Amino acid sequence: VQLQASGGGLAQPGGSLRLSCTAPGFTLDYYAIGWFRQAPGKEREGILCIDNLGGIRYYADSMKVRLTISRDNAGNTVYLQMNSLTPEDTAVYYCATAGPRCGNPSSFAFWGQGTLVTVSS
């Protein structure tokens, strides 16, 4: 499974971005999709995951209120809406999958190239 994350870029503090995760040539309907990020000089951390039935599991509770995850099965895309961005959100964001359920972050085996989010004024 080759995943692609996109939608990153430069955002102002307090702004919003919507990231997308797609898998050209592969159907995402049956798979859970997790979002992760890695900030400069830091380890990769799990953010949240949406399973194949639309259930959501949060890995980073501190971000919960600022996030909306959704899936468009017709468009074969999973979206991550991030609001109220701060410079601390600057990171490379990745989507990943490991099957239909949202397991622990270490269980995700298939990763895409990340997309860089930079939050700066």
Short description:
With 121 residues, this protein is an all-beta fold.
What's the layout of helices and strands?
Layout: E1 4-6, E2 9-11, E3 17-22, E4 33-38, E5 45-50, E6 56-58, E7 67-72, E8 77-82, E9 91-97, E10 110-111, E11 115-119
Parallel strand pairs: 2-11
Antiparallel strand pairs: 1-3, 3-8, 4-5, 4-9, 5-6, 7-8, 9-10, 9-11
Mean pLDDT: 94
Q: What's the shape? A: globular
Structural class: mainly beta
Low-confidence stretches: none
- Indicate the percent of residues in helices: under 10%
User: How many β-strand runs?
Assistant: 11
Ends distance: 36 Å
Describe the structure in your own words.
- With 121 residues, this protein is an all-beta fold.
- Helices cover 0% and strands 44% of the residues.
- The strands form two sheets. Strands 2, 4, 5, 6, 9, 10 and 11 form a seven-stranded mixed beta sheet that branches.
- It is globular and about 40 Å long.
- The model has no long low-confidence stretch (mean pLDDT 94).
